[in-house]
User: Which sequence fits this backbone?
């Protein structure tokens, strides 16, 4: 009987020892705060939360560089953070705000410099990019602009902090200026004309470069119209910066086709089918052939718009 | 006698200095610990329950510039060749073949179309990151409790506790995790946990020039993310996995996996 009791006691002792050992091991090995709110270390949440932010945000930049920030903020690129191009500013801010700097001047320099790639990260032409986003093929862009040096940097023509404005003279750069709407920068239509505002960035008009043609145009019957009524500007595709001519006959007929609701006195009107039938024998074409021709009206009536001789002589851009 | 006097005076001086020292320490510690301006406002666990962080990606706005990838790398010191967020490109050509690529995670954007010989009929970018799933596979498989959900719905890794076994990396259906070989631990997107509780946005959200990314508190009925989710039609990545992700995608194509 006594011998059996010893056996049992041994087992109980071993189990108790294991239990105590286990508890002791758990107490020693289980990290502090583990299991307090879940099956994890609660302190870890606060450790990760306490990391210092690296990117400082545009407000931090604006505290010292208010002028550049204001410039950038009204550009179409206002959504591009300063640190997107210049790199994170944590060391820079620390160096310039601490009384006794712990960060050396060298470390505090903003790390990223301008590269051509920098602009092309967003603006290189790719099939996957939304078509309404401005994008270029650099080779095409240079070819179009007659730029021979492929290391030419975007910022040599486009102002870095407000790239929709051009630094170069349009005529020299051979970039077709973007036609700005006031609303691009302002909320709603401004009260004053931009020419009356001192220090307003230059807005290019057609006349600045195409003086002879614009002046000639004004002597013709269509002088009351805007250039852009016929010359369409395509802003956001691969031809960004190009102006198209709208020479389609249907466009002319929007005003000149005889319709009962139109004022016959104000606008000369024709019945196009009758007019084409009348002209067909002279042109040695059928009326259908004429109407399918893309420049059906302008082939004959070009001089009603502006002097064709001027165009034939190649006087397109005439500002030096 | 004189040596005895010296000894007494030096003992007295020692006690004196010791007392001053102790007093100084007391005053010093009170000044350091008692200054309320130096102590950052840390939310308690109960405070965290007021949040449920969610993320929104508008794929129709993404231009694949890689600003988010670069910002994330720098913000979180992500080692080379690993990414916490990356941008995938899908190109569908005229033969309906789908080409998916993400060269270097789009760290330096995309240099050219990947489909060169055929006509691309449809193409788009899809930025990816940790989905911070409600029923996450990664936290379930962690054998040591180093991967967990915070009370405000963010999936984090306790790097002091992680043993680097890599189960979570294999379990994640979205490929959002990696083993940091320098530290020998698993790592992943923290939704910039160190920023969102300081009132900042995650670095990728701030960096996006097209406002294609948005984070916000899903428990706040007035948050912008809730407003956008009510207004736009969205979908999830791999909803059939049952992970219940909290990263919502606007304009997601059926081909996206």
Assistant:
């Amino acid at each position: 009987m006594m011998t059996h009791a010893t056996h049992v006691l041994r087992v109980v002792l071993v189990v108790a020892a294991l239990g105590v050992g286990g508890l002791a091991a758990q107490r020693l090995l289980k990290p502090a705060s583990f299991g307090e709110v879940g099956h994890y270390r609660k302190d870890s949440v606060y450790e990760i939360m306490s990391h210092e932010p690296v990117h400082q945000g545009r407000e931090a930049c604006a505290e010292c560089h208010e002028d550049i920030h204001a410039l950038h903020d009204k550009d179409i690129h206002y959504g591009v953070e300063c640190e997107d191009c210049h790199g994170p500013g944590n060391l820079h801010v620390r160096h310039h705000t601490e009384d006794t700097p712990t960060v050396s001047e060298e470390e505090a320099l903003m790390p990223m410099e301008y590269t051509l790639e920098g602009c092309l990260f967003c603006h290189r032409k790719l099939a996957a990019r939304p078509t309404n986003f401005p994008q270029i093929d650099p080779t095409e862009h240079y070819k179009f602009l007659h730029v021979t040096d492929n290391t030419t940097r975007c910022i040599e023509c486009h102002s870095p902090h407000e790239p929709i404005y051009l630094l170069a003279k349009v005529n020299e750069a051979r970039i077709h200026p973007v036609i700005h709407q006031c609303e691009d920068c302002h909320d709603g239509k401004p009260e004053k004309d931009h020419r009356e505002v001192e220090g307003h960035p230059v807005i290019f008009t057609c006349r600045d470069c195409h003086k002879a043609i614009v002046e000639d145009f004004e002597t013709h019957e269509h002088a009351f119209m805007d250039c852009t009524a016929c010359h369409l500007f395509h802003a956001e595709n691969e031809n960004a910066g190009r102006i198209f001519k709208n020479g389609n006959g249907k466009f002319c007929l929007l005003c000149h086709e005889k319709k009962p609701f139109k004022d016959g006195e104000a606008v000369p009107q024709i019945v196009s089918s009758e007019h084409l039938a009348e002209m067909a024998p002279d042109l040695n074409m059928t009326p259908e052939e004429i109407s399918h021709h893309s420049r059906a009206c302008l082939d004959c009536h070009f001089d009603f718009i502006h002097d064709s001789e001027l165009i034939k002589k190649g006087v397109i851009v005439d500002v030096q | 006698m004189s040596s005895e006097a010296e000894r007494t005076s030096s003992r007295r001086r020692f006690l004196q200095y010791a007392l001053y020292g102790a007093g100084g320490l007391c005053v010093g510690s009170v000044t350091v610990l008692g200054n309320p301006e130096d102590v950052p406002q840390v939310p308690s666990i109960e405070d965290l329950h007021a949040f449920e962080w969610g993320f929104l990606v508008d794929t129709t706005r993404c231009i694949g510039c890689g600003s988010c990838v670069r910002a994330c790398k720098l913000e979180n010191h992500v080692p080379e060749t690993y990414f916490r967020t990356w941008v995938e490109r899908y190109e569908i050509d005229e033969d309906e073949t789908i080409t998916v690529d993400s060269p270097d995670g789009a760290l330096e954007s995309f240099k050219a179309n990947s489909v060169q010989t055929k006509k691309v009929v449809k193409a788009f970018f899809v930025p990816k990151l940790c989905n911070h799933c409600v029923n996450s596979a990664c936290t379930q498989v962690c054998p040591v409790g180093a991967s967990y959900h915070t009370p405000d719905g963010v999936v984090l890794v306790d790097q002091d506790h992680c043993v680097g076994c890599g189960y979570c990396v294999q379990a994640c259906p979205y490929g959002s995790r990696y083993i940091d070989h320098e530290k020998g631990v698993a790592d992943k997107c923290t939704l910039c946990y160190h920023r969102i509780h300081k009132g900042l946005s995650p670095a990728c959200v701030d960096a996006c020039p097209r406002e294609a990314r948005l984070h916000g508190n899903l428990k706040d009925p007035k948050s912008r993310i809730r407003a956008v989710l009510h207004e736009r039609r969205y979908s999830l990545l791999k909803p059939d996995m049952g992970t219940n992700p909290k990263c919502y995608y606007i304009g997601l194509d059926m081909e996206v996996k």
